[in-house]
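Recall that a protein's primary structure is simply its ordered list of amino acids. Everything else, from secondary elements to tertiary packing, is in principle encoded there. The following example makes that idea concrete.
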Amino acid sequence: MPIRIMLVDDHQVVRQGVRMFLTLDPDLEIIGETSDGKSGVEMARQLKPDVILMDLLMPVMDGVTAIGILRKELPDTEIIALTSVLEDNAVMGAMRAGAIGYLLKDTAAEELIRAIKAAAEGQVQLSPKVAERLFREIRAPESPETLTERETDVLRLLASGLSNKQIAAQLVIGEKTVKTHVSNILSKLGVSSRTQAALHAARIGLVSGVGNPFG
């Protein structure tokens, strides 16, 4: 089954360009596109895509607000912020809202395709510039609940860039069990995304860094 992708960007030329090279990959399928966050939320509710490429600066509803809504309503849909903005407020806003990735629009086509496939597997992967800004700005959760030994193992592997399927294979447990552990980890740490959990793991020294699709 191809990865089902939705595009949300107010520039038609950008959507056309992205659609043109993504459709060349048989593993990817564009199932919908729209021009603002509000209609993006409504379309995603109907189509339930695997991955959404979300611009941040849009009319009617901005991308950060849309990401926050969709993360709560469609937890199985991963969202990549695809934008021309590399400002701390934008990066932090998108990550806090629950985006699994943050890419600039000048990203090479091959790199974007790799990032989409990684996101579909639930892999936390960030470009170096974004990871550097996030690591500098994000703070450790206040008084997080203690993780169990197994949850700590899952967090370590998650932060190393492994997908749920890879974590399940390494720990010899079911993929659904991994998803349950990830959900518990996010709840205990008081964060809304795998990316934030991975950055927390890096900050406390559980891993040396977070996965990087371009390095």
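The chain has a mean pLDDT of 84. Residues 3-123 form a domain with the Rossmann fold fold (CATH 3.40.50.2300).
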